[in-house]
Design brief:
Helices cover 39% and strands 20% of the residues. It contains 16 helices and 22 strands. The structure holds nicotinamide-adenine-dinucleotide. Nicotinamide-adenine-dinucleotide is lined by residues 157-161, 184, 186-187, 216-218, 221-222, 225, 236-238, 241, 244-245, 259-262, 293, 393, 395, 421, 461, 466.
Length: 499
């Protein structure tokens, strides 16, 4: 911890990483970074205003249009990504502690995130080496080849719930495909990204290829979105912000990919393996303190097992150990901020009017935790599927349990949502699982498991949960333009106008 404390007062913290250098912002402004477990200020990081954002964009533009980056082969880009993965792996413990300090999540969760971040860089380092493009079978004398090219300058805006992992999901495929990037982390959790960029500097990425700006959505994110020099915006965050970003990026019709919110149904049929379903039901909503886009926040349980299932779930939930992420015994850390805590509490108050509270519902007030944003894991039962707590994303450890009587009813309730990110299905009937899986209007389904996130597969949502996909080869495609190159074996005039 001593090394961490020293790093928190080091000079790079108050700077921005632009064009391969740590530089002061034009106005030399800083903003506080808060530890959500205590609400104490732990560092002051540099803030980028419009002029700084423009500098970062110009650096990325220059690196893309005029720099050596263009000549980097897939092999060379792969090497940079492999080195980044290795650096993260060598520093997992330090990065995990930094993440826990800034985000509040348990060290156990943070270590997993760091490993997944390293794996993401390694995955894209490997798939970029595979052959790309295709030759079409067209009529002679024509030849048609389809190639993929980088899009250009990518503005990447990320949230606070998985700070370093979200940075990896954005940077790795973009760099693999040969783009240049300007990354803006959440103003609430900028620290691990700063540390990552120190590693990027040590590795020796060409200047301007990756740039880091910190600051708020309006002051720092918006100028990035509105810039004519940016070719693509990749955004992860709330649905309302996503809509604003889409409107604001229309100026030059830049490419936009959006990973947004969710209200994912987790559906438990009476024929499911009971213990498995019970275990996953609590993991689905309470891991990362419920601050997960794909959290199983609507639990649909078949009526014949409903009462017992809820009773047993309450027993499991009451045992969850809430506390500091640094305490190895802790299973659930604090919420990210005082504001967010208040938002979650207001949903709980509303829930008390809309449904039956059967577990939790209070801020944790014991001596050690009273200054932090700790809340009890909370369960409401008999929730009307149309109730606000069953329709809106709460983004905290608050579960709405809803009974259902038939497969059709479960499907109808599950799909009755503006969102469509993910869904869980617990049953031992293979055909039923397959039928449900196909009819659910979501981007990812899990059968007899929940929250399995595979780097190799596409991640993203239907409806208001977003546009585009991250991860897998799909995530790489989102960072490329497709070009068809048509040639002829017969170099001759057409004769069209010569008669
Ligand atoms: P948020 O929308 O408040 O902020 C996300 C990012 O956008 C931050 O960096 C913020 O500074 C920036 N931002 C805010 N306003 C902006 C603007 N006008 N222009 C440009 N940038 C702007 O979201 P949050 O509270 O940080 O994160 C929680 C949300 O993220 C939840 O809704 C969650 O579901 C979603 N999320 C989705 C996924 C996914 O994969 N679908 C993953 C993680 C989180």
């Amino acid at each position: 911890m001593r090394a961490l404390t020293k790093w928190l007062s080091s000079t790079n913290i108050s700077k921005l990483y632009i064009n391969g250098e740590w530089i002061d912002s034009v106005k030399n402004e800083t903003m506080p970074v808060i530890n959500p477990a205590t609400n104490e200020t732990i560092a002051k990081v540099g803030v980028a205003r419009k002029e700084d954002v423009e500098k970062a964009i110009v650096a990325a533009r220059n690196a893309f249009d005029n720099g050596d980056w263009k000549t980097f082969t897939a092999f060379q880009r792969s090497e940079l990504l492999q080195k980044t993965a290795k650096k993260i792996e060598e520093n997992v413990e330090e990065l995990a502690k930094l993440e826990t300090l800034n985000n509040g999540k348990t060290l156990h969760e943070a270590r997993g995130d760091m490993e997944a971040a390293a794996d993401t860089f390694r995955y894209y380092a490997s798939i970029i080496m595979a052959p790309m493009g295709e030759t079409l079978q067209v009529e002679e004398p024509l030849i048609s080849k389809v190639v993929r090219e980088p899009i250009g300058v990518c503005g990447q805006i990320i949230p606070w719930n998985y700070p370093l992992l979200m940075a990896a999901w954005k940077l790795a495929p973009a760099i693999a495909a040969g783009n240049t990037c300007v990354l803006k982390p959440s103003e609430l959790t900028p620290l691990t990204a700063i540390r990552l960029f120190e590693m990027i500097e040590e590795i020796g990425f060409p200047s301007g290829v990756v740039n880091l700006i910190n600051g708020t959505g309006v002051d720092t994110g918006q100028p990035l979105v509105e810039s004519h020099l940016v070719d693509k915006i990749a955004f992860t965050g709330g649905t309302e912000t996503g809509k604003r970003i889409m409107q604001n990026s229309v100026c030059n019709l830049k490419r936009v990919s959006l990973e947004l919110g969710g209200k994912s149904p987790n559906i438990v049929f009476a024929d499911a393996d009971y213990e498995t379903a019970l275990d996953h039901a609590s993991f689905a909503i309470f891991n990362n303190s419920g601050q997960v886009c794909s959290a199983g926040s609507r639990l649909l349980v078949e009526k014949s097992i409903y009462k017992n299932f809820v009773k047993d779930l309450v027993k499991v939930t009451e045992k969850i150990r809430v506390g500091s992420g640094f305490d190895e015994e802790t299973q659930m850390g604090p919420l990210i901020s005082k504001n967010h805590l208040e938002k979650v509490r207001s949903y709980i108050e509303l829930g008390k009017k809309e449904a039956t509270l059967v577990c939790g519902g209070n801020k944790v007030t014991n001596d050690k935790l009273s200054n932090g944003n700790f809340i009890e894991p909370t369960i409401f039962m008999d929730v009307d599927p149309k109730a606000t707590i069953a329709q809106e994303e709460i983004f905290g450890p608050v579960l709405s349990v809803i009974p259902f009587e038939s497969e059709e009813e479960a499907l109808q309730i599950a799909n009755d949502s503006p969102y469509g990110l993910a869904a869980g299905i617990f049953t031992n009937d293979v055909a039923k699982a397959e039928r449900m899986s196909r009819k659910l209007r979501v981007g990812v389904t899990w059968i007899n498991t929940y929250e399995q996130n595979l780097i190799e597969g596409p991640w993203g949502g239907y409806k208001a949960s977003g546009i585009g996909r991250e991860l897998g080869t799909y995530g790489l495609d989102e960072y490329t333009e497709v070009k068809q190159m048509i040639n002829t074996l017969n170099v001759a005039p057409t004769g069209w106008f010569s008669n």
